[in-house]
Records
---
Amino acid sequence: MATTAFVFALSRATGDPRLLFLDQYSTQEQWDAWGKQMGLDRPLLAQYATWVMDAVRGDFGQSLSQRTNSLSVIAARVPATLQLALGAFTFAMLVGLPLGVLSAVKRGSMVDYLGRAVALFGQALPPFWLGIMLILIFAVKLGWLPTSRHGGVEHFILPSITLGWLAASGILRLVRSSMLEVLDSEYVKLARAKGVGRLSIVWKHAFRNAILAPLTYASLLLASLITGAVVTETVFAWPGLGRLAVQSVYANDFPVITGVVLLFTVVYVGMNFLVDVAYAYFDPRIRY
Amino acid sequence: MENAGAQAAKVLDARQSRRDRVWRFFRTWPVLPLAILTVLISCALFAPLIAPHDPLVGDLRAPTMQPAWYPEGSSKYLIGTDTLGRDILSRVIFGARISLIVAAVVLGLGAVGGSLFGLVAGYYGGQVDEVLMRFVDFTLAVPFILIALVVVIVLGQSLTVIIVLLAVFGWGGFARQVRAETLSLRTRDYVALAKVAGAGTAQILYRHILPGVVNTLIVVATLRVGTLILTESILSFLGVGVPPPTPSWGSMVSDGRDYLDTAWWISFAPGLAIFLTVLGFNFLGDWMRDRFDPRLRQLV
């Protein structure tokens, strides 16, 4: 709710949207006609009310730069962003989970050091620079992968790594610390004493319990994917929501930018809610 | 024979223990981060003295010069020049200023604002706490980069706008930690005694509770520096950071983006600078947390 008011205030603060379309040669009548058409002649509060009602119905108004419905402009970009997020998520899981578990099980080993390096780099590497350096090495110098744009599987590799690394390092750290804690617990010791096999102890007894803590991280992970999407899509010229947001900001296209910001916020809040529910489901001790 | 063997063993022992000592020294003291940060801070403070060239004025006769170790490079420009012939090394050195100024001011504002909020929320509890913390949740729950894009377009690009933006959305972490700490401190006997002795709320908060949360505050601040510098660089990279021609690491990386196949060094050095700086602060933060406030391990 507060976000909508905030976004609306911003959208009106940029100045009269009419300025974008009409130049000094247009007459006062044209000016007023446009104003009426866009509902700018009514009081601000009424404009806000209409805007919220429209937004709820998914109508953010005409895109100012493309002269079509903003919703269709936005909707056209959703699949690319989802695909990228899925790619990044897959990368994060493939790297973060096994490395986290292994570095906890084999503490102080090479795997552990590798895991720590991945985690440290993930938190300190600027995502845009990581992307650019990956392009430099694998696309420009080695020529193995395409530099940018949307396309087949090979187009997904570099962007997914760029976007997924931070998330991978977060998952890795959480899984590692929570595995260490669980491996040290009484019931794991009991299982060992009973003579349960190593693999079974790690994956059945410990991992299942250790995965709970990282679950709460899922919402933070989504946040990093959203922020990262803006950057990653800009670096790789990816036709998704993040790049759309940047483009429409430069083009002063407010209906579109408000739509994207609201969409991201709704997804964000929704995910937070889902995480709470999932947490209660996985951990029967929590009851709301 | 025996003698020689014993002697060899002794020498080995001595070596072993010296290596252990060196190793232990590196483990107990954050040598690497302190070294990085010393270089960084001296760069920021003495930029005009250290930098070999003017960071803003380029030599148009020498655009995109290769680094000195290339055949066409010149020792005048150690790591090359950008498309306008500006010395990259000088720009990276001056870029440290922007990153550090932003980080320092935002942290200052965040620490003061956040602890004020956290102290009040934690001390009063109940509905006050509820309302204040909802507000904190809000500032932490918005997609920051997107909001920042919009705000910068509305208000225009400037250092002040960036700092205010980062500060407005960056104090939530402080507020949460300080509140948690205050919640436990306010039940202590000495706080109750101060109340009995007639101390006012402001005095209790300032004199008796604040000193107890300072450790946490410092640790949280150090842990946040890295993220802050990264965020600033992301904004600069997207073109909504500190306006050009002021050298900022993020925008320098962005400058070199279109010349990757011909001039990779334009993007490389500033990005490396960001990476090392953030790495240094993160290391230092981890070390301070383990040393001063190990309980935070679970929280941050």
---
Amino acid sequence: MTRLRYTLFGIGALGLAALLVWGVAGLPDFGRYAGPYGDIVSKVVEPQRHMANAVTAVVFDYRGFDTMGEELILFAAASAVALLLRETRDYHVDDIVDAVRSDAVHGAGVLAAIVTLLLAFDVVAHGFLTPGGGFQGGVVIAASFVLVFLAAEYHAYARIGSTSFAEPVESFGAGAYVGLGLISFAFGLAFLENFLDLGVTNRLRSGGSAAIVNWASALAVAGGFLVIFAEYLEENMAVRYGRKQLR
Amino acid sequence: MIPLQSVAILFSAAGALCVVLARDVIRQAILFSLYGFSLVVLFVVYQAPDVALSALVVSGIAYPLVLVSAIARVHGERKRRRE
């Protein structure tokens, strides 16, 4: 029986190895780029869209509709997490004892959170000039709130990062993204097509309406991640302290 | 292929192996963020800074955080049942 199994595995493995070698041998040379789209995009982005960062131009303008789908995937994921983790949470906020007591940790952590938040806004605002943009900046915004939890623990976090704050931010961002596409319709343009002045390349005010789409997606992403974090955190607090009230 | 690129590829291959071989879930989550960092280096070396930023925020912040809090949730539940 084992022999038969090994024989079968041997045949399969040999076949797989042959296919792999064949496939790898047929790959184009290292570093050679055969697709035409990359070359075309890097040529037309600057004259057409006045954006220095071609990646952001593709994400929020040429393929803006694609990105909307990705945005809504995150929205659905955050909603699903919120829905699945809706266990009865019978703990009282006053029962929770913050584990972090050191003033130095509080101070350094809050300072780090502020610096991270500023960095996030920088990443979002310059998304169409330098690497970065709404998605990356949005996650960094959420990360700065998590830093508040790490440094000042639950009470401070519950005040600023609760779902009652994150949910409207997320919905507003996702809604604004779709709404901007509809505004393009109102101007008689294609979905998410630029309807604003394109501005001067390499300036902060450039890129036209894609720059606003960029900010909308930053809000949606930041809100989405905050909802997910907050739900998990409240769940953990419920597991840790949920029984205190019942006793 | 310049040497830096081969080093970056080897670095992430070793990282992926470590993640698979780790048995403890918490250790696995931490190793995963290290592996994610090796991918970030790989993307930077291959001149894809936008992808590197996304990989940095997702594999460095978002994914480990969700993993660790999910693990904490499960551990807490087990502790509660034992009591």
